[in-house]
Input
Amino acid sequence: MVFDATAGLPESRRQSLVDRITRHAEPYLYTAPALILIVTIMLAPLVLGLSYAFRDVHLLNPFSGGYVGLDHFRTLYDDDNFYRALRNTLWWTGASVLLQFVFGLILALLLDRPFAGRAIAQALVFLPWAVPTFLTGLNWAWLFNPVIGPLPHWLYALGLMSEPANILSNPQLAMWGPIIANVWWGIPFFAITLLAALQAIPRDLYEAAAIDGAGAVRRFTSITLPFLAPTIAITVLLRTVWISNFADLIIVMTSGGPADRTQIVASYIFTQAFRALDFGYASAIALVLLVLLLAYSMLIVMLRQVLMDRA
Amino acid sequence: MNRYSIFGTALHRLAILCYVVFALFPLFWLLKVSVTPNDLLYSEGVRMWPSRMSFEHFRFVLAHSAFPVFFRNSMIVAGATAVIVTLLASLSGYALSRFTFRGKYWLVALMLLTQMFPLVMLVAPIFKMLSPLGLTNSLTGLVVVYTAFNIPFATFLMQSFFDGIPKELEEAAKIDGATQFMAFRQIVLPLTLPGIAATLGFVFTAAWSELLFALMLISGNSAATFPVGLLTFVSKFSVDFGQMMAAGVLALIPACLFFLFIQRYLVQGLTAGAVKG
Output
């Protein structure tokens, strides 16, 4: 039908109509496969999961599944463990992101300078990033273990510890275990991203600034930082969300213990779902977490927009 | 000035050395314990290297466990996921980089949303969705799930690489009669090879490491991936540190090899050539 309608038109007009349709459809064709996968494998289960928050769903109980209204949320309101997990999440996320970013930026600046053996040094310092996260957790748990690891003995020798003990079983210090493992694992991610952004800065800018008499500090604040700012903003914001949901290390290293001192919201959800097999309650906690993170994500979208408009 | 720069150089090398030691020490310790014979494990304390080396732990793990199968399963899953994700993400990343279209804002918002919510939420619904399709306890099921999980981040990553390539290159090609897709395939993609390598590396590592969904979707040894196998092993033989660490070293090998292979593309050349425009 479409071809009939355009059959009488001159060749060039017909061409341009087909062109126009193609041009309009083109971006959708590029994004369709990704979009379809995201909708079917992530969005649909998400909606299904949200409905669990209002139902009594026990994974292995075939008779569960009934509607319970807001019961889960009433339980949650009085759940002290949840509030503790929320505070722990802030502490875990804040400390991890800050340390990863600071050490990642320093590493990127160090590697941006040419020196003999840079390629090898770079390969070695980026290596932790390739280590699977569950193995990172196991590895650091072993290092903190006085039976098999050196760290407690060293801390004892330095006088920082009265006896070689496992910090993972000390309620006051336990959170530092997963945080240190997370920093070790996450520094390369920041360093790689920031180094790529650093190397995208045209070298002639530095040369011109040096000729104009700008010192190293001045070149850093007037050229490097402004160029890095968008990368830093987006990387830090995305990473914050990612780390606040990142429960693998905690589950592998401490399972939230001792005395729930390392339990973050994500690991609490995991515990409810896999140990208690209470998927309804787990989904209710997840829904609350989702609302908090959504507020945060709106901020990112707005910030992205501002940054893109400015660029 | 000269003395200052010598001092600065020394400080720079020292800082690099600190990073290298910090990065390698845990892995070194893993390797050290894995080659320490059981009788020396507790008697020698925190020695840097055992007085006698032995590969007994590796022999046990390779001969008397299902680790070779786990290894193969993980290679299949991580490899397939990396290739499919990179292919699809370069398409969608290109669209985000080069087109303005209705719904783009919502697409970005949707992709960001997928980065926000705790994936643990999806474990039960995905299990219930995949189960009737026969995709639980299957490597295909894992590939499908991992592909969807990794696409949003990979898309943003590819978009940032495309953003670094000047539009003028494609405009010139289009003036010469190429379609946008031809310009994308023949001009932009070759310039993005470092970005493609980086994306492959990211996704391979992510798929190789994933634990939660593998635990949920796979039961039994035949389709178990390495993380599932290792964690089962750890809970079963939790006192045998030597064997656990030998298995850990094996889990490390492919991820590290792949990483060393692609890492030179990660940063080098991101900006060389066309980007300078």
Observations:
- Chain B touches chain A through 95 residues (CB under 8 Å).
- Residues 269-277 of chain B have pLDDT under 50 and may be disordered.
